[in-house]
Amino acid sequence: MASVLYQSIETLSRDKGIEPEVVVGAVEDAIALATRKFYKTQENMRAEMDRETGEIRAYVYKTVVETQEQVEDEINQMTLEAARALAPEVEVGGELRFYKDTTPLGRIAAQMAKQVIFQKVREAERDTVFNEYNHRAGEVLTATVKRLEPMDVIFDLGKAEARMPKREQSRLEQFAVGERVRVVLLRVDRAAKGPQVIVSRAAPGLVQSLFQSEVPEIYDGTVSIRAIAREAGERTKIAVMSRDKDVDPVGACVGMKGMRVQSIIRELRGEKIDIIEFSEEITTFAEKALQPAKVSRVSITDLAEKQIEVIVDDTQLSLAIGKKGQNVRLAAKLLQWKIDIKSEEEKRQEVEQQMHAMGGGPTTPVEQITELGETILEKLIAAGITTVEELADMTPEQLEEVPGIGEKTVEKISVAVRHYFGQYEEGEERPVVAAPVAAETVESASEAEGSTSDASGTEGDTMKTPEELLAQQAGAGEAEEVSAISTEDIEAAEDADSDSDAFSDADAREEQIEMDNDAVDELVDQSQETSDEGPDTDGHDRG
């Protein structure tokens, strides 16, 4: 029958989860150390415990050498001759043991033995915990919340405690002491105070385990989970594929009226889950991974670096990127590819710039836009904008980045560029282009119509005003004074004068400029002032 001491050792071993032999060895080492300390000796000492009686004996061990010259340690070695005097059957290399009385051991020696036993048991417990959980990384365990710390949550796994750091927690979750939750075992860290088991509620493996427990098709292998991308507390994207063509993988995971996926969402405290169908074709997989956004087209830009370019409609760009870039970031994790997402407008501008860089398009100096003032032109040129095409391709945000260009100036530049390309909105007045009429031209026309040349080549008696010229050319036959003249009247007069060769200057007829009503009135005033100056060289009064 085992002694009471050995029964106590077995009870301790069961509580700590370690083998009884480990505790027995710790007790023997403690007694040997305490005996050596008590006798103040450096002899090799060992202890042995009798499991039947519970008695612990201490012994001193000495190694046998052949001759005296081979003795290096007088305390722990002895010659063969001396050893055979005590034990005739001993050989070289053998050991002789001598009993050491442990009766005189007092309180100090017992306290020292107690500390050694505790230390040995703690070391054995640490090794047991490490060996128990080190090979189980990635496994989902059921744990009980033991206590809540400011940053960490401590769980009880049964045989050991586990720690969940802040970064491995979901922001949506709050725990209470005694609550049972499922956690993912990440790793086991060796530390000075013992191995630390690190668990997580933010790992993608937790979602995979929940789907396996809720969806029978995943548990039996009909539907497989090919990829998971997760941001704990926010959103999870999971790609599934069916091995049976008659089984819809997405429908199997969602369940009737969404019962299966809703159960998982409740376990994750309301975290959103996107379930998509896996595809071996990366372009098709990318389109599905970016849902709910609608993708226009997907192209592979670099196969070696795993880069793809995704083009979406301008209205779908913000939806494809997601809140703070979450949607495209999760899609990139799911695909394990780099995603460059662009709108249709950005892609069009990129193509135009590439064509322009290849020299495929014409270039027009920006000075050709006459509606822009010299100040604005100087600011654009200083910023490196020297062509009309480059200015037309710039967005309002890019124009506002130019030093000295404000919001109103941007609007003015946009209108000027549209007018340059002949684009006018409804209600905008187009400029009227007419031939220039100078004072000298009017005077020549008046002389051609109103004077008679004599044999000596003298000029006529009087010079008529433009109003009188128009009235005479219209055939009115009466001297009706015209108080105002419109742009249409001037154009009609110019056409009539051109028929009668009144305007002989070919350069003035070819040049075309813009004139408004104020310029016409000023021209008429100048003509009247010329006629009121007084008599000419022949002694006739003008006008």
Note the gap between the termini.
153 Å
Overall average residue pLDDT = 76
CATH architecture of the largest domain: 2-Layer Sandwich
Point out poorly predicted stretches.
433-463, 473-521, 527-543
Number of strand segments:
17
Radius of gyration: 52 Å
The oligomeric status of these chains comes to single chain
Please write the CATH class name of the largest domain: Alpha Beta
- Report the major sheet: 5 strands, mixed, barrel
Strand content: 15-25%
Q: What is the fourth-level CATH superfamily of the largest domain?
A: NusA, N-terminal domain
Strand order of the largest sheet: 5-6-7-9-8
- Helix fraction bin: 40-55%
CATH fold-level name of the largest domain: N Utilization Substance Protein A, Chain:P, domain 4
